Amino acid sequence: MMMMKNVKEDKFLSIRLVRFLMRVTGFWPAESEIEKRLLNGVLSYTICISSISLWLEVTELYLGKGDFYALTYTACSSMPVVIIMLKIIFFLRYRKELLNMLKYTQDNFWYAQYDEYGSKILEKINKKGLILMCTFTFFVQGTVCTYILTPILENIGKNESDRILPFNVWIGISTTVSPIFEIMFIIEISALIHCGICFCCFDNLLGLLNLHTAGQFKILQHRLKSILMRVERTDTVRLLIEKQKQKVYEKLRECVILHHELIWYSEKMEQIFMYSTLCQLLVSGIMLCVAGFQVFLARGTLIRRLIFIAHTNGCFVQLFVVTLTATDLMNESRAVGDAAYNANWQVLSHEENRGVRTAVLMIMIRSARVCSISAGGFFPVSLETFMAVLSTAASYFTLLRKFVE
């Protein structure tokens, strides 16, 4: 596929959103040496601010170990930070592979030339991706806003010595006096906003890559169906001149190569994302349970309950985005075999078109094994996984409620 002009690089808002979020965290291919240094600096900032956030949460968990309600309260803010650190570690391990994959995606998926059908597919992907990613990002940043607004509202009318920060800081000196309070407040807000971006950027990227890979499989299905669309009877094939037969074979050969490349791309994507996906699924069930506990059973003000409502919504949408797009990838990769079967190959002469029939058969056989994103290599992620995590969270919540009672 040929490259488009650079003026069309910003055509799709979903791609622009993902690129912005990933650049803010430092995980994006650089186009120049200056940009490379800048992204390395941003990545260093991301690691530093995430480490500080993790230290704050671990300290708070340790000091609140005697209070069950305090532990569950802190756990809601601790688990996202733990997930962020784990994802950063995993993606640092595969950073080179991730950047190479993003370059390949830009060259072959996002900025390539398409026919009318392919352009419609990309438009649909853009709309669906925008809805999913904007919804997820909205709820994550909504959680960030509730954490920011809570101390601001609760500090109204309080003395200087009674002021509170979004998160407690244990550094051996009083954090309620000026200007230490203002400095710590700005640092915590900056860390909170950046952690919110880190929490949603990797899953938004995975969701968009799933959608575009599924879209490429759908385009391949259309190509397979249209190659032999005019062939209706065996006699028609016999009347084809040798040049036309060779052209049909070459088109099918291109489809086989494209199918092989998409399979390779899907396997590479799974290799990069499978461990972060596993950690996310393991933590999501616990997080939904703990956040639900704080909403319905814990003692707290309305504004603090809103924090955990936002937590629950964000975690729910996050699971839905990842599992829905992974299901699309599985379904479209499986449908390639059906498209090859429906490509009128049965009317081809067995003696004179053996190469064409063999190419179609290869695609059908390989499509029997679907492409998917697995959770650590243990099981493929799909909407069934989404329901399983919700069921597990409900079970944990029931046990936790009985424990408290």
TrEMBL record:
Annotated compartments: Cell membrane
Main location: membrane
GO annotation, biological process: signal transduction
Membrane-topology descriptor: Multi-pass membrane protein
This protein's record includes keyword Membrane: yes
GO cellular component, one term: plasma membrane
MF annotations from Gene Ontology: odorant binding; olfactory receptor activity
Pfam families: 7tm_6
Transmembrane segments: 38-56, 68-92, 130-149, 169-187, 272-296, 302-324
Keywords: Cell membrane, Membrane, Olfaction, Receptor, Sensory transduction, Transducer, Transmembrane, Transmembrane helix
InterPro entries: 7tm6_olfct_rcpt (IPR004117)
Matches recorded under PANTHER family: ODORANT RECEPTOR, ODORANT RECEPTOR 30A-RELATED
Name the UniProt record assigns to this protein: OR49B protein
